[in-house]
Amino acid sequence: MNPLSSPLLADLYQFTMLQSYLELGMEETAVFELFVRKLPPGRNFLVAAGLEQVLEFLENLRFSPGELDWLATRFPPHVIRYLEQFKFDGDVHAMPEGTIFFPNEPILRITAKMPQAQLVESRIINLLHFETLIASKAARSVLMAPDKLLVDFGMRRAHGAEAALLAARASYLAGFSGTATVLAGPLYDIPLFGTMAHSYIQAHADESAAFEHFSRCHPANTVLLIDTYDTEAAAHKVVALARKLAASNITIKGVRLDSGDLAVHAKNVRRILDDGGLRDTTIFASGNLDEYKLHALLSAQAPIDGFGIGTALDISIDAPALDCAYKLQEYAGKPRRKHSEGKATWPGRKQVYRTYGNDGCIAADVVALEDDDPQPGETLIQPMMHSGKRLHPKISLTTLRDQTLKNYRCLPAAMTALEPAPVYPVTISLALQALADQLDREHVQHDREIAG
């Protein structure tokens, strides 16, 4: 059993509800939508990510004999017979990965028979939530340092193996240059970057010898970590080594700084390298970085060419969760609306329309009923799967990344900053508001009839 593709990777209540739906004959078509209720503090927008993993999950969703045997110890035979034949044959509509979106805008819609649409809820939220969370965090660093090499360094502190891999994917989709997580290379075709650890330097009796050994072992990609002992002294050693390596046609590609005052060290090291004729040798920095520290370093004009961003990215340290939900919006052809205090939903199947200003930047969104008169603007929600089959070939991650970077260019300047921008206008159409009001009245009337 592969735990990451198992249909048992779900909340228990998905199965208990499935049993009840089957026993009550509630197998008509249901429509669920996933959306985010509000932005995390300090964030101006979100970046949709994770759709590819959702489509793969739905395409391959089957119960193995072992899983069915285990379920048979907890659920009656008719449930097991249903699950033996289980296959997702519903429809999926969604915003393409890399789309900029805002609260109350559905980014994914599932249309399927009620037991199917309910069963897949937990894993769909799990995938879309995490990748969207990380892509949205990564976007902030990309916007702070658009011309710099940005590398995901967060595997060792990610919350598990799948989180490390999906963080590498989501950050690359959001515009990062690559990752240090090796498996993400063959799995997602993400460029890999890496240097050495301090232990490599410490394992040698002499720092210069460590530099030379590594350079000769990796002549095509020599990047040396120079802050194990004395950063500036190590930079002088790099200059001396470069002259020695020149005889072997080996060029020192870069040096990495991982501690101390990175701005001060970078300026000192840049001067030492330049004075030694190593003007093309780059400086790469790491060490508990995030978008705020990038902004501070760049504001200080630190001569740093690239950054490794780890913990803060892979756990989205300042906003570790999104207030997202997967809610029933229609069942058996009738719109449904949740009335819970502070968590009421907009009913029905919806579309999001986006308009742009004369400067090409996004200007406003309208959330409307899908079957209402079309609103002006670009439609963001697109058909992705019909009757359980994909409608489009798989899009390469590089293509998605390119599109995401284009989407950033449509952001108003205020929204690209780290400070809170004016709230982006998302309007609920009049017809959708009217439908919600109608359902509220019907709900009150129904309760009165029951009570009286």
Could you estimate the helical fraction of the residues in percent?
25-40%
What form results from the Cα inertia axes? elongated
Separate helix tally: 16
For the biggest β-sheet, the strand order reads 13-12-1-5-3-17-18
Give the class from helix and strand content and strand pairing.
alpha/beta
Low-confidence stretches: none
The beta-strand count equals 19
CATH level 4 superfamily of the largest domain: nicotinate phosphoribosyltransferase
Can you name the CATH architecture of the largest domain? Answer: Alpha-Beta Barrel
Beta-strand proportion:
15-25%
CATH class of the largest domain: Alpha Beta
Subunit organisation of the chains: single chain
What is the mean pLDDT?
96
CATH domain fold name of the largest domain: nicotinate phosphoribosyltransferase
- C-alpha end-to-end distance: 54 Å
Characterize the main sheet. 7 strands, antiparallel
Number of domains: 2
Task: Write up what this structure looks like.
- The chain is α/β, with parallel strands linked by helices.
- The protein has two domains: 12-134 and 320-451, nicotinate phosphoribosyltransferase (Alpha-Beta Barrel); 148-314, TIM Barrel (Alpha-Beta Barrel), CATH 3.20.20.
- It has 16 helices and 19 strands.
- The strands form four sheets. Strands 13-12-1-5-3-17-18 form a seven-stranded antiparallel beta sheet.
- β17 (382-386) and β18 (389-390) form a beta hairpin.
- α2 packs antiparallel against α6.
- The longest helix is centred in the first third of the chain and has 24 residues, at 121-144.
